Amino acid sequence: MASPQDSVAKTNDQKSTVSARITGEGGKPPSHALISICKSLVAGGVAGGVSRTAVAPLERLKILLQVQNRHNVKYNGTVQGLKYIWKTEGFRGMFKGNGTNCARIIPNSAVKFFSYEQASNGILSLYRLQTGNEEAQLTPLLRLGAGACAGIIAMSATYPMDLVRGRLTVQTEASPQQYRGIFNALSTVFREEGARALYKGWLPSVIGVIPYVGLNFSVYESLKDWLIQTKPLGIAQDSELSVTTRLACGAAAGTIGQTVAYPLDVIRRRMQMGGWKGAASIVSADGKGLEYTGMVDAFRKTVKYEGFGALYKGLVPNSVKVVPSIAIAFVSYEMVKDVLGVEVRISD
Known about the structure:
Blueprint: H1 4-23, H2 30-54, H3 56-67, H4 78-94, H5 98-131, H6 140-170, H7 182-193, H8 202-230, H9 243-273, H10 280-283, H11 295-306, H12 315-340
Helix pairs in contact: 2-5, 2-12, 3-4, 3-12, 5-6, 6-7, 6-8, 8-9, 9-11, 9-12
């Protein structure tokens, strides 16, 4: 039979448990947790905006290469394509669509990084519970899963912005349909093509984001852990990596992720252009203009009319873009969190 003292102790333990759940780990009040969440979201948003603006010209060229008509080739490569844009559209042409891109990527990046932190923490807790090892750490495969969850959540939340960003980026002075801006494009697509049109290409995006974002986080975090643990050539000091080394880790992660997922990005972009009045001259593969009934049909027609290599159109400028973009995003995120005083990094 339990003594009165045991009953009191048990009640106090239960109260402590409830209090811990309410206040969060370490007894932090809800306001502290909310501030930490906001700081994390701000860091992710800044990272996305800075990284994408830095490579905006290459981003636009990649999309133009992905959707151009093979019977009317204007862009033959990275250098020639950038020169052509500069010659025909000037400085503003180099950054066309970047405002829309940032309006999409800032919330996308904020949600992505925050979702990864939450997903990785949840997966780690379940993993430790399953294995019974409180010291267990995330494996590369578990990081891949956390990254995939984060990518799907972030992409789905901001997908309509990605669709109109692609159309604004492809739009030229000769395009019959002229969108005046982000909100005009959103309202026009909704009015003329219906609500479902705002999510054209969503399926290949979901499938593509799993290896892309998943591998980005998994490779970046795993590579950092390996360098800290093995310290090859004395590259890590006191469990910390230099900015240059972290940039290299981010570059490796971005290169691997985008190479695996790139064909799905091409198909997504072509599906997004379908149904756009006057867009056939841009996206047609046989000179007559094509409509896609779905992801598989888009793959089939692209390969049939243009060959397997068409699935990698724009890969070179995208590779040149991805190396600094992903690297800058990861490092910017960690640096902004340091400046804002957020205790937990994605590695933790």
